[in-house]
Automatic annotation (TrEMBL):
The record marks 189, 247 as: Could be important to modulate the pK values of the two catalytic cysteine residues. It holds the Pfam family DAP_epimerase. It comes from the Bacteria. This is Diaminopimelate epimerase. The active site is at 95, 95 (proton donor), 256 (proton acceptor). Pathway: Amino-acid biosynthesis; L-lysine biosynthesis via DAP pathway; DL-2,6-diaminopimelate from LL-2,6-diaminopimelate: step 1/1. The gene is dapF. Coiled coil: none annotated. Its main location: cytoplasm. GO terms for molecular function: diaminopimelate epimerase activity. It is found in: Cytoplasm. Keywords: Amino-acid biosynthesis, Cytoplasm, Isomerase, Lysine biosynthesis. Belongs to the diaminopimelate epimerase family.
C-alpha cells in the first residue's frame, strides 16, 4: 500500500496591490501614485475607481509621479513630470493645488527636499517651479509651497473686459444669467463675479453651470465675491476674495489653485491698474494666496498635506 501525500493547505491567491498616498491642498484632494519609472498603465477606468469616494480611496483627481524622461511631451528642464487626471478619468493640463502636493509627495518619497532649492515640475501646461515658503501672515506660522504658475491671461483681452465678459453663465440657484470672463491658466476657466455673499451661498453647484458659447474643451467655473482690501505690516496692499468652484471633470470641489489664479486675475483686470497685486482667496477648504508679478506671471501659494498611506487591494475595486 502506498502512502498518500497529505493534501496541501489551501493557499490564498496573491492579491494585486497598489501603494498610493492620499493628500490635499486646501481640501482639494488627490490620490498620489509613485510610478517613477513609468511602468504603470493608468487607464481612465483605474483613475475613476481610485478616486471613487465610496468604492475606492476617494479624490478630486489622481497625480502620478513619473520621471520626465519617460514622458515624451514633458517640457525641457524638468526631472519630474506631474501626470494629472481628473476624477472622471480625463486629462487636465495643470492643477495648482496638485503641483504643491506633488512637491510634498516627492519630499515624502525622498526624491526632493526644499533644501535642494527650487523644484521644476513638468506639466501638460509647461514647466512650473515650486519652492517652500512661509505661509501668508494672515494665515499663521505654517509651511507653504509657492508655485510660479506662468502667465494667466484674459482670453478675450480688453474687448472682453469692456463688454463685461466674453461668456454668459447660468448657475442653478441664481435667478439671472451672469457675464463670465474666460481666463487661461494653462487650463480653461470662466470667472463670474457676484455682488454679495448671499449669491455665493445660494448657488447650487451640484450641476455644472451652463456656459455660452460652449467652450470646446469644457471649462472650470469660479464664482467670486470681492471681500475688501487691507494692508500688511510691511505696507503690501492685499485684496481678498471668496470663491466657490465647479471643476471640469470633477464637480464642485473645496478648492482649485488654477481657479484662484483665474479669479484674482479677472477681478484685478476689472478693477484696473490700482488694484492690489496680492490676493488672498478664501475657498471652502481654506485660503490660498495669489500674487500677480510685474512680468505677467502669477504665483500661487498654499498648503500641501499628506494624510495617509494606502495599500489598495486592486481586486476589491469593482471590475
Ligand atoms: N483642482 C485643480 C485643477 C484641476 C484640473 C481641472 N479640473 C481641469 O480640468 O482643468 C487646481 O487646483 O488647479
Amino acid at each position: 500500500m502506498t502512502a498518500t501525500a497529505p493534501a496541501p493547505a489551501a493557499v490564498a491567491a496573491p492579491q494585486a496591490r497598489l501603494a498610493v498616498v492620499k493628500g490635499h491642498g486646501t481640501r482639494n484632494d488627490f490620490v498620489l501614485l509613485d510610478d517613477r519609472d513609468g511602468a504603470l498603465d493608468v487607464t481612465p477606468a483605474l483613475v475613476r475607481l481610485l478616486c471613487d469616494r465610496r468604492g475606492g480611496v476617494g479624490g478630486d483627481g489622481l497625480i502620478r509621479v513619473v520621471r520626465a524622461g519617460h514622458v515624451p511631451q514633458a517640457p525641457a528642464g524638468a526631472q519630474w513630470f506631474m501626470d494629472y487626471r481628473n476624477a472622471d478619468g480625463s486629462l487636465a493640463q495643470m492643477c495648482g493645488n496638485g503641483v504643491r502636493v506633488f512637491a510634498r509627495y516627492l519630499e515624502h518619497l525622498g526624491l526632493w527636499s526644499p533644501a535642494d532649492g527650487d523644484l521644476p515640475v513638468g506639466t501638460r501646461a509647461g514647466l512650473r517651479t515650486v519652492r517652500a515658503v512661509p505661509a501668508a501672515p494672515e494665515v499663521g506660522d505654517v509651511a507653504w509651497f509657492a508655485v510660479d504658475m506662468g502667465p494667466a491671461t484674459v482670453v478675450g483681452g480688453p474687448d472682453a473686459l469692456a463688454d463685461g465678459g466674453d461668456a454668459t453663465v447660468e448657475v442653478d440657484g441664481l435667478a439671472v444669467t451672469r457675464p463670465g470672463l474666460s481666463v487661461d491658466v494653462g487650463n480653461p476657466h470662466t470667472v463670474v463675479v457676484l455682488a454679495q455673499d448671499d449669491d455665493l451661498d445660494r448657488a447650487d453647484l451640484s450641476h455644472a453651470p451652463r456656459v455660452l458659447p460652449v467652450p470646446a474643451d469644457g471649462t472650470n467655473v469660479e464664482l467670486v465675491v470681492p471681500a475688501g482690501e487691507s494692508r500688511r505690516a510691511d505696507g503690501t496692499l492685499v485684496g481678498r476674495l471668496r470663491m466657490r468652484v465647479h471643476e471640469r471633470g470633477v464637480g464642485e470641489t473645496q478648492s482649485c489653485g488654477t481657479g484662484a489664479c483665474a479669479a484674482a486675475v479677472a477681478v484685478r483686470a476689472w478693477a484696473g491698474p490700482d488694484a492690489p497685486a496680492v490676493w488672498l482667496v478664501d475657498v471652502p477648504g481654506g485660503t490660498v494666496e495669489v500674487t500677480a508679478r510685474p512680468d505677467g506671471h502669477v504665483v500661487l501659494a498654499g498648503p500641501a498635506v499628506l494624510v495617509a498611506d494606502v495599500d489598495v487591494a486592486l481586486d476589491a475595486l469593482p471590475a
